[in-house]
Design goal:
The chain is of the alpha+beta class. Helix content is about 30%, strand content about 25%. Strands 3-5-1-12-9-10-11-20 form an eight-stranded mixed beta sheet, with helices on both faces. A five-stranded mixed beta sheet has the order 7-15-14-13-8, with helices on both faces. The protein has a four-stranded mixed beta sheet with strand order 16-27-28-29, sandwiched between helices.
């Protein structure tokens, strides 16, 4: 067992601990970025002037009337930017447009006011003349016009033509499915202020403080060391705060630079929904071949991601979707081509799963549609195609521990009494013509690590004070997912001190530099490795101090629960006393830790390699009941078994599994993003721009019975304390809900009905699917 994976006796990791901010969350005392503005005086409020067309030339931008509004201090336009006018990952995304707007709602200027009302009034007074240009709103619009941007990668393995020739059954189809609004509780938010030396401090709700620092640096044309970004905590992120916050932070910093006063940028819900990117919708076309036993022989597919007006993170989202189209299934002969559609709407961005859910959804939709045509139960068709030992992915990465898919699958079958309940469901359906029930079970195999290998590194700074208390700084950000809680447990375990002795500091770029985004489910792996490294450096120094007192080699010294012991000795030392002695001996009591994920390599040009450290596995069974009158349905029961390795913090992990599943259910069944595709004046406008028109899951959509278990005996070698990532993989467990709906719809039709189901499978979509199978 590696040192990174090995746990000491009686570790703090693995214990059920509540979220470190739980009490502050429920009592309302937890501070967020916008709360800090109220502690400052002279804060200016920023409000955008939004484009009222989807695509147009800017003929004239007149700000003069706005400056006459009482309380308006400044109107920021592209001409005020001293550095590079760009906020994007690919340098194709102007912070403010110069002569062309690219989506309905795009900010063309920002008004700074003494209060929000003055800023809003000023924004209304800004006059913009447009010359409308042709606009492409849907993926189909872009495909028809040949409008694409970025790379067009291809994954190829085996001989897919020969595979189709050998296939006993060949099916073809396509699938157009929607994206998803992040709908984090805390909207995009930045607060910038400048001190007496000209140093800029930005409080920002961002998952990637270093990249926020980078973007602000080049927008203002100043070096990064003049900018510090702090993240206290976020009220949710889900990927929507990986790239999207940088421009708003840059506006706040530019406003502070121009006026010398603190500037606050906080989007209300409608601004956030009309200005920020979403999960990428996709259009997929496919052809698949099976042998007589229902085993996949060949797949040929094309995935087209709806990228929006700029690239943002669309290229890595696309490649991850392509790398996950196999999900948990062995495909010996495969060709997958990808491309990014360029449309005139918000630039779509990272969202929990980062393309993985979209790729996996294509495969699950295929299997759900063709199973009745093959005459094989969908559950059995999936099982027959699971990866086994010695097989590798379409991009040639060996699949380690594939037996865990079978283990989780069997655990769900047994614990959820699938066979018994299926018999009950058949009896119910036979006696109920207007309601039908169904139960579906689906697997998840999800790769963990960033697509870009360079991002797979993390840093930490651990400080031990003379009284023995410990302060941990690390490069990850807390967005409610419990990362700080896990890092506290890692530090306490590594140092051998009680959890109460350790505190986490807010994430800051002037404490831990060059951080990677808290994304790709890598937060615990990267930052946990770095925290452990820093703690072990300090512990090694203290071991020498204690060894001198015991009269033993340092290797014989042990740390646990705030006590220090030695092999063969009966006495014990207090942690605090040894720390104090170390200080008196001028022993360094702080350390910078570092971690890099080993064993990764990826050739983007050839789409081959081992981009992932490991795979996370999971299985979910969902039971639904559907009414034929209106397509409404109830999620009756969910049973999940999920692989998190040796959990760092079981209660945190269970919460992430539950939350991820529910968010995935929202994407697949409720959250219906709509843009105006008419030729009227609102063309390109986001029509679902508030909670009144965009439905996210609530308690009424939660399953009546919700059982979640962690996979037993799932230690992962080479990862911090044998744990595995948990943030993204559970979202894909929700495929089981959509597949249960498909099977319930099929029960309204003749035996062996193949159901084509929209995504999201809203009650309306389910109603029309029922209507279709009855015909």
């Amino acid at each position: 067992m590696s040192q990174l994976s090995q746990r000491p006796e009686a570790p703090i990791v693995g214990q059920r601990q509540r979220h470190e901010s739980a009490a502050a969350h429920v009592t309302g005392t937890a501070l967020y970025t916008d709360d800090l503005a109220h502690r400052l005086s002279g804060v200016l409020h920023a409000y955008p002037v939004q484009s009222t067309v989807a695509h147009a030339k800017i003929l004239n931008l007149d700000t003069s009337e706005a400056l006459h509004i009482p309380g308006v201090i400044k109107v920021i336009t592209a001409g005020d930017i001293p550095g590079v006018n760009d906020q994007g990952a690919k340098h194709d995304e102007p912070l403010l447009p110069v002569d062309e707007v690219m989506f309905y709602g795009q900010p063309v200027a920002w008004v700074l006011g003494e209060n929000l009302e003055a800023a809003k009034a000023g924004a209304k007074a800004v006059s913009v003349d447009y010359e409308p240009l042709e606009s492409l709103i849907t993926v189909q619009d872009a495909i028809k016009a040949g409008s694409f941007h970025g790379i067009q990668p291809v994954i190829q393995k085996g001989d897919w033509d020969a595979g189709f020739e050998q296939a006993a059954h060949v099916f073809e189809g396509d699938f157009d499915f929607a994206g998803q609004e992040h709908f984090y509780l805390e909207t995009q938010n930045s607060l910038a202020l400048i001190d007496e030396s000209g140093q800029i401090l930005i409080h920002c709700s961002t998952q990637h403080p270093t990249e926020t620092q980078d973007i602000v640096s080049h927008v203002l044309g100043i070096p990064a060391h003049e900018i510090s970004v702090q993240v206290l905590r976020m009220g949710g992120g889900f990927g929507g705060k990986e790239m999207q916050p940088h421009g708003y932070a840059a506006v706040a910093a530019l406003g502070a630079k121009l006026t010398g006063r603190p500037v606050r940028v906080r989007l209300d819900r409608t601004l956030d929904m009309t200005m920020t990117g979403k999960r990428h919708g996709f259009y997929a076309s496919w052809k698949i071949g099976f042998d007589d036993q229902g085993r996949i022989l060949a797949l040929d597919a094309q995935l087209t991601a709806d990228g929006g007006w700029s690239l943002d993170l669309s290229e890595p989202v696309l490649t991850r979707a392509m790398c996950h189209i196999d999900n948990s299934y062995w495909i010996p002969n495969i060709r997958v081509a990808g491309r990014v559609a360029k449309c005139h709407k918000t630039s779509q961005t990272a969202f929990r799963g980062f393309g993985g859910p979209q790729g996996m959804l294509v495969m699950e939709d295929i299997l759900g549609r063709v199973a009745p045509q093959l005459g094989i139960e969908a559950r059995e068709l999936r099982r027959r195609n699971f990866y086994t030992e010695g097989q590798d992915t379409p991009y040639f990465q060996p699949v380690r521990h594939p037996e865990r898919i079978d283990a989780a699958w069997q655990q769900v079958l047994d614990s959820a009494d699938i066979a018994g309940r299926e018999a009950e469901i058949a009896q119910f359906n036979a006696s109920n013509p207007y309601s039908k029930r169904a139960l579906a079970i689906t697997p998840v195999k999800f790769g963990i690590s960033f697509n870009l290998t360079a991002f797979n590194q993390g840093g930490a700074l651990v400080l031990v004070y003379k009284d023995g208390s410990v302060l941990v700084n690390h490069g990850g950000t807390e967005m409610g997912q419990g990362l700080h809680t896990k890092m506290l447990q890692v530090a306490a375990t590594s140092l051998g001190v009680p959890l109460s002795s350790v505190r986490i500091a807010p994430t800051r770029t002037d404490k831990v530099p060059n951080t990677s985004a808290t994304a790709a489910s890598s937060g615990s792996d990267l930052n946990g490795g770095a925290v452990k490294d820093a703690c072990e450096q300090i512990q090694a120094r203290l071991a020498h101090v204690a060894a001198g007192k015991f009269g033993v080699p340092a290797a014989d010294v042990r740390f646990a629960h705030g006590k220090i012991t030695a092999l063969g000795k009966t006495e014990e030392l207090e942690w605090n006393d040894v720390v104090r002695d170390a200080y008196m001996q001028r022993i360094q009591l702080s350390a910078a830790g570092y971690y890099r994920t080993e064993g990764l390599h990826w050739d983007l040009a050839r789409m081959t390699g081992s981009p992932f450290k490991y795979f996370s596995y999971g299985v979910a069974a969902s039971e639904v009941e559907v009414s034929c009158f209106d397509g409404s349905y109830v999620l009756r029961r969910v049973d999940i078994v999920h692989d998190v390795g040796d959990s760092l913090s079981p209660m945190i992990d269970l919460g992430q599994i539950e939350g991820g599943f529910v968010q995935g259910t929202g994407w697949l069944t409720l959250e219906d993003l709509r843009w105006d595709t008419s030729d009227g004046p609102g063309r390109g406008r986001v029509a679902t721009q508030a909670a009144s028109t965009y439905k996210i899951p609530s308690f009424s959509e939660m399953p009546e019975v919700f059982n979640v278990a962690l996979l037993d005996k799932a230690h992962e070698e080479g990862v911090v304390y044998g744990s595995k990532a948990v943030g993204e993989p559970p979202l894909m467990l929700a495929f089981s809900v959509r597949e249960a709906l498909r099977q319930a719809v099929a029960a309204f039709g003749p035996e062996g009905s193949s159901v084509t189901l929209a995504s999201p499978a809203t009650p309306e979509a389910v109603f029309w699917a029922i209507d279709s199978v009855r015909e």
